[in-house]
Amino acid sequence: MSSDLASAINSNSAAYLTSDRTELAPLCNVQQDIRGLRIIISCITVFTVLVSMALMTQLHGGDYQVVPHGSVVSDSSECSAAGVAVMRKGGSVVDAVISTLFCLSVVSPHLVGIGGGGYMLVYDQRQRAVVGCLDFQSSLGSSNSSIGIPGFVAGLSQAHQSFGKLPWSSLLNAAIEMAGAGFQVSDGLQAAALLAADRKQLKDLLVSGHNPRLFSTLQALALNGSDGSGWWWLVSH
Fold first, then answer.
1. Residue spans per domain, the chain
2. What is the CB neighbour count within 10 angstroms for residue 110?
3. Each residue of 191-237: pLDDT tens digit?
4. What's the whole-model pTM score?
């Protein structure tokens, strides 16, 4: 190979590829222009960065693509729906429980009622720990009387003060509406009415599906029960 050809090949200016495939004879004699490829890669990189920034902004400040939700289970589908409706309005789980329980006091007065009490255990999934344990069972007076002091309203009010988000009065809306407009009597309530056949007033209350006195009572509790004094307000009035 002549020195001129070797020099031309080494400088990528040879007009052809020689058959002598040595270190002095590269496979390509003309350097390709890769500026177009660099532009494409740059555009893809910029696009990827912009999409990533948009997704991060959406995740931190945008609307949920999958709406957070929860479920409520109770003896009444109407009361369960009332609890779910509370969460959809931005209420806490405890808000949903309070609304559901007041609703049950209307449709299942033989099981749940404002004259009773209960327990509440609040578990925080994020902390993986119990954050609240409330005991609002009916308590007996110092004289060992058979008549207990109801803790239902006071206990739920305390739970609302600690874990609630929505206004107290809004949590009683479903119960007030059902007590005033009426509701479908369940099989369990009908069975309870049969056991109370010898007590006409109680039987009429159970089977009619309307409870005007409870309707008025719940309205009063909605206005005066948020601080836990609702039951004493009812007694005094």
1. 3-61, 77-236
2. 15
3. 877 777 677 666 666 666 778 888 888 998 888 776 656 566 665 65
4. 0.66
The answer for residues whose C-beta is within 8 angstroms of residue 71's C-beta and 6 or more apart is 80, 84
The crossing angle, in degrees rounded to 10, of helices 212-224 and 173-181 is 160
DSSP 157-201: HHHHHHH--S-GGGGGHHHHHHHHH--PPPHHHHHHHHHTTT-HH
Residue 95 near residue 165, CB atoms below 8 Å: yes
Whether the Cβ atoms of residue 107 and residue 79 lie closer than 8 Å to each other: yes
132 close to 120: Cβ distance less than 8 angstroms = yes
Q: What distance in Å separates the CA atoms of residue 197 and residue 94, rounded to the nearest whole number?
A: 37
Q: Which DSSP symbol is given to 30?
A: S
C-alpha distances (whole Å) from 51 to each of 8, 39, 40, 54, 58 are 48, 18, 17, 5, 11
Phi, psi (rounded to 5 degrees) for 149: -95, 115
